[in-house]
Amino acid sequence: MGHTFPALLQRMQELKDLSGAIGLATWDQETYLPKKASEARAQQLSTLQALYHERLVDPRLGEALAWAAGQEGLTSDERAMVRVLAHERDRAVKVPAALVRALAEAQGKALVAWREAREARRFAHFQPALARVLALRREQADAYGHAGERYDALLEGYEPGMRVARLTPVLGAVRDALVEMVRVLAARPRPPDVLEGKSFDVEAQWRFTLELLEAMGFDTEAGRQDRSIHPFTGGTHPLDVRLTTRLFPEYPLSSVFSTIHECGHGLYEQGFAPEHYRTPLASAPSMGLHESQSRLWENVVGRSRAFWSHWLPRFREYFPAQLEGVEMDGFVRTLNQVHPSLVRVEADEVTYNLHIVLRYELELLLVADALPLDALPGEWNARMERYLGVRPKDDLEGVLQDIHWAWGEFGYFPTYTLGNLYAASLYRAAVAQVPGLEEGMALGNLLPLRDWLRAKVHAQGYRLPAEDLVRQVTGHGLTDADFLGYLRRKYGALYEVSLP
Amino acid sequence: MGHTFPALLQRMQELKDLSGAIGLATWDQETYLPKKASEARAQQLSTLQALYHERLVDPRLGEALAWAAGQEGLTSDERAMVRVLAHERDRAVKVPAALVRALAEAQGKALVAWREAREARRFAHFQPALARVLALRREQADAYGHAGERYDALLEGYEPGMRVARLTPVLGAVRDALVEMVRVLAARPRPPDVLEGKSFDVEAQWRFTLELLEAMGFDTEAGRQDRSIHPFTGGTHPLDVRLTTRLFPEYPLSSVFSTIHECGHGLYEQGFAPEHYRTPLASAPSMGLHESQSRLWENVVGRSRAFWSHWLPRFREYFPAQLEGVEMDGFVRTLNQVHPSLVRVEADEVTYNLHIVLRYELELLLVADALPLDALPGEWNARMERYLGVRPKDDLEGVLQDIHWAWGEFGYFPTYTLGNLYAASLYRAAVAQVPGLEEGMALGNLLPLRDWLRAKVHAQGYRLPAEDLVRQVTGHGLTDADFLGYLRRKYGALYEVSLP
């Protein structure tokens, strides 16, 4: 057929450019799209996604990839490009078009039913639509194929290479340790919120977030920040990375931490190697590893005393009246309140992972068809009580709180905790490998950390699966030890207690 | 082959959605794109355009269109959709891929050469690159096919249905009349600029332009205004129309008239009929007719005394100090200064069309290969002197001033004057058909004009060729009479002189 690598590369570039167009249309949808254009934009996105899918499953691309997989003369990066794209294509090819359409339709209906169920605060209104989505996702998992554990086939879509057999023991250890830790911390007096009841000008907040972006080394000539209802990171290219944040007068920490979080994602995207641009390697190897960057910056760095040693005085210059009398100890305790609660998205970094483990355990049962859906709310509530000691008073506070399942996103939740675990391991390695890292941070110097992450993680792109990359950088793969050790040290000191 | 109209419609929608994605990427390029992403964006646009082209020339689309052209049962709108798309496709199919590539390359080089030539202020630096573009455009025109007049084949790309044989006598009459009119007006004392030397806060200018948009009936829930270096109208859909303007402290009329101008285009885009959305009918039938809307609003309305009867007092509320002592007569004369000059984009509405006629005449010669390129600057300068009585001191002030030829845009210039001619005819019809139009306008009521244009022009979409649509609305086709009559009345009164 006369295959050449440049011809294959051109197909890769075309797919990346199409992804970029989808990224732009999605970003615009959440930032600047006029109100009446929402249906038009959904149609445009659907067309672009269908085109992407069509180019991906094109048999001629399959032939070119098969040819390239057999070539001896390719560089290791070229071989990795072929491997990554072939993996994406193989999964796409395995799902019949009728199933893709049925899933899209079922997800659309499930979103509507989920919203109605939330209005009524009753899971029963959502249950039939969820059952349909779940049945189709099971069918899809079987179409992808798996070695007995169906959940693996869905997890693969978010966390390539990760398996239930590897993940369950780690998350089980996290759960058991956190249940004990939360029990101890929840018994201590809750530290006061030193910012409560004050108002912070949103334009000043905006300028402060821009200063943070600059200090973290986000390149504003290769990206930008805008406002949206839900903060996210998107864009079209490593030189065009788009962050959003949101600003509330009463909650200045919301914009601060959403900017730091999204900037963590954004630095990953900006850090891909120029030689990987417009190829499958300009991509994180997993959602968990991507999330590790946002959580490393948001929690490990952004909620640390070292970070605020520099930034609290600066923050005070923006808001002198509101920060009068606020001292470092009280401020850092405010940032790190541990408090068992019902809602995942409001959870602190200790209790958060129990919310995730709960969802992971229920997903395993649901995907295996081992839990009848009408028992789901009860199982949810029972586990909330067991893990966090709190019980939802209705389904809105419980099983209806997340949109993910209506979207059919089974297998996604564990990537959040993987992010926390990888973040702790990577940060520990950074401290060990970069002399004076935290001392510099206390003086406002964040670039050594960014540069280390860029070299060790970002610039590697998708050369290796996530866990292999973490192992290469830290000397070990997925572990709960670094994360639990980090929590014990940090919260032991903050709450002046010895943690189990 | 089992063709159906819904299947063909889906292809039409896909093409429109792809155009929308191109529109978004282009808008973003001029508004929010980070600086370092310009090459990445050019690549993304090139990929999207190549995909659009590929889908357009797809032989299966050709078969479906041929099938549909033979169907009796289609509605007249469906037949028009088939006709418009088949016309676009037929032209695209006629140009060999090698010629498309050669043209893109030659235009790229010509742009570079044009910029270098402007630096050196010498046409000779641009001449070889221009010769190449011109040769390829001639080749392309012959590939399109024509009945002897090669220019017709290029004009067709901007002004479908218009022909040199129809256009030349009209433009000749415009030229002869304007040369006389300009001679008389240029001999009168030039009215003073009542805003000269004052500074106008750009944020206040911005708010004033938003108020203008609102008053003109631009739907800001189906569109938006942003800032860019060069004002333009773009967008992705009739419910997502994007205008831009620019703000200079010293020239408040720049933002005012660029907003009014682009809003004229934007109202056209917003005015397409919902049943035409995502079909070839949601499109103006020609660039000249599109331009008629921007020029009708900018010049005929926006520079009229009636319009400012309402808006000057309002403008004064925004800028009381700057407008102190400025009265209506002096203000309207400032908006309508006639002054022969060298630069098209700075020309007033009387002299402007002589700049266009000059270019049209030279283009006719160039495309026919009847003027050696080294004689072009001299021809330019001689005609400037003959038509406007001014002579460029070098090529930068002359033949190098426009980017269009470097882009290969031969056939584009006459659409500007067609816009002025159609605007005058349409406005005359509006005044005749809408009782109290100008009296209402003097009270700030612009919606009757918008609604008339929407019903008569915008909502018709691409059902008819431009001149047929104008004939349907006004009772006659292209004519110089309405425009020349409008100029004579307006400038005769303003300059207190009887115009030839």
Task: Describe the protein's architecture and organization.
The structure is a homodimer of 500-residue chains. The mean pLDDT of chain A is 97. Chain A has 3 domains: 1-94; 95-145; 150-500, Neurolysin, domain 3 (Orthogonal Bundle). The N and C termini of chain A lie far apart (64 Å). In chain A, strands 1-3-2 form a 3-stranded mixed sheet. In chain A, a hairpin with a 2-residue loop joins strand 2 and strand 3 (240-245). Chain A is built from 20 helices and 3 strands. Chain A is globular and about 70 Å long. The first copy, chain A, is mainly alpha-helical. In chain A, 62% of the residues lie in helices and 3% in strands. Chain A has helices at 5-31, 38-57, 59-69, 76-94, 97-120, 127-144, 150-155, 164-187, 202-216, 252-270, 287-301, 305-318, 328-335, 352-367, 376-388, 414-433, 437-442, 447-456, 466-474, 481-495; strands at 223-227, 233-237, 240-245. The A-B interface holds A 13-14, 17-18, 20-21, 24-25, 28, 32-37, 40-41, 43-44, 46-48, 50-51, 219-224, 226, 236-237, 239-241, 277-278 and B 13-14, 17-18, 20-21, 24-25, 28, 32-37, 40-41, 43-44, 47-48, 50-51, 219-224, 226, 236-237, 239-241, 277-278.
